[in-house]
Amino acid sequence: MSREPRTPEARASGLGLVIPEAAAPLANYLPTVRTGNLLFVSGQLPLRDGVLMARGKLGEAVDLASGQAAAAQCFLNVLGQVRAALGSLADVRRVVRLGGFIAAVPSFTDLALVMNGASDLAAAIFGDAGRHARSTVGVPVLPADAPVEVEALFEIGAD
Amino acid sequence: MSREPRTPEARASGLGLVIPEAAAPLANYLPTVRTGNLLFVSGQLPLRDGVLMARGKLGEAVDLASGQAAAAQCFLNVLGQVRAALGSLADVRRVVRLGGFIAAVPSFTDLALVMNGASDLAAAIFGDAGRHARSTVGVPVLPADAPVEVEALFEIGAD
Amino acid sequence: MSREPRTPEARASGLGLVIPEAAAPLANYLPTVRTGNLLFVSGQLPLRDGVLMARGKLGEAVDLASGQAAAAQCFLNVLGQVRAALGSLADVRRVVRLGGFIAAVPSFTDLALVMNGASDLAAAIFGDAGRHARSTVGVPVLPADAPVEVEALFEIGAD
Question: Which residues from chain B sit within 8 angstroms of residue A31, using beta carbons?
Answer without folding.
Answer: 133
